[in-house]
Amino acid sequence: MSATKNHFDLPRLRTASLEELATGLDNQRFTSVQLVAAYKRRISEVNDEFNAVLEINPDAEKIAASLDNERRDGKLRGPLHGIPILLKDNIFTDDQTSTSAGSYALLGSRPVREATVATKLRESGAILLGKVNLSEWANFRSGPNNGSNGWSARGRQTYGAFYPGSDPDGSSSGSAISSILGLTFAAIGTETDGSIVSPAQRSSVVGMAPTIGLVARDGIIPLSNRQDTVGPLARTVKSVAYVLTAISGKSPYDNATSSIPFDHIPNYADACQGTRLDGLRIGVPRDAIAETDGIVMKKFDKALSLLKSRGVTIVDNVLFASAKEWDAWDSAEKRACLQAEFKHSIEKWLRELVENPNNINSLSDLVNFTKSEPKECYPERDIQRWEWLQEGPEYNSDAYKKALEKMLRLSGKEGIIGAIEEHKLDLIVHPTNIDPPTTFAARVGLPAITVPLGFYPDDTEPTCHRGKIIDVAPNVPFGITFTGKPFTEELLFRVAHVYESVSSVREEIKPFRMPETELRDVISAAEQRTMLSGKDRLTLKNIHACRLSSTTPSRSGPSYSHSSPLSTRIATPLPISPSCHGLEPRGYFLDEI
């Protein structure tokens, strides 16, 4: 049999749909073990450039092999059976990977149980491939003029995929980058205020921040128990829909899920069909987006025309009654609720850890550790957001309750919810990451989905954001966000899918560097090596074993066994790139067993 026979029509991993991957697995064109091997090689090929992936699960191939056996026995757990997925490094998984929010302070710590979202993925048959980098503490450490999106002490700086050295946005930076580069089928991120939709737009992928309560948040390092949500990022609307179905549902460990108004979670992928949106009313908060970049607005207005052509009634010039009061509100008071909620939530998390090797039991302990641990890069990376906590009210104090009442009123009744009700809208639409629409939706827990809208043109002058990292540059993507009423994810998927289908934005421009390994390479290499004879012959098991190693000693924290040829991890940074700003690329050596 030719080593390349029938391999060139295998799905390409950056663009593969779930249907294509599932069909290939069902027809034994390839296995989940081979799928994991291919993704791992792709990670090793580009992670020095983007720093998206933090760790790989050493047991990924073993899990894949078990799921392959289940498939052969006709036991399929669901559409995600045997499909690798990466998770943000604040989602606890009961395996050999760490969960640290990007900080050395929590390295080796363990809560009482695995995050429900991780358990649901396992139950659906997904392979938890590993952890991705994030903005440390979900972007709640350094101040706006000192930190950068996508930087963490453990992972250093994650970079955007469409221009060298560019801002990936955050805080789910690695989730977005790994999705657009085809380092995974999909990734899981978290959002408190824009942390899914914003990095999704910068990577030209789809990101869904679901209604607070649709997906359980237990087992996830918190920022705000009132405002946190968790959702998927992937290349297409339908891919995101499949994953959201798998992770949604009520949980005894998160009271917010009791607000789910239906007994059975919809199959959200079923909403991703059709080409018409007749009868829908979608509002545009024109005043709120007036200062948006002209390049973005030109594409946005074109998108509105596309929606009209699909039968949508565009209600333009929708006003937020609270706009002037919101703009005039003191910034310290605006952030008071979130600050108080972070202190309350994180100290509760720390107290409940069953393993806490650095004895971080309070915010004060966290501050002291961060200041004294050189790898945390203080004071080059400050802790301004934690220092602000000293100025704000305590959780549940009268001052906190007063600020919360005002914030909910301005964001909700007199903000985005009031606008939806007044104009009898089904959805609000706006360019992604525009304040106040993005913030209003986050503050009151509304679902939002972002879809690719366009790219900056070739003649764009690169500009920097937060000092050194590039914000706007040629080919940098931007997105469009649809926001709905609570638990209207089905409608959001329907609208986003139709828009995605008629706009065809994503493939206009590709990342400036991409991994090369495809499934055919893994399969062909295996076939060639299994034909070798003698003691030097390598088996398929050996082919799949690929280990990344560094010239530096391994990091502190949990010890990982590498005695098995299936063990895999991402190496620690080389000493040639010690910068706390992390602006130099990391270096790795790839050893193949």
TrEMBL record:
Gene3D superfamilies the record matches: Amidase signature (AS) domain
Parts forming coiled coils: none
Domain Amidase: from-to ranges: 35-492
Span of the signal peptide: none
Superkingdom as given in the UniProt entry: Eukaryota
Full protein name: Amidase
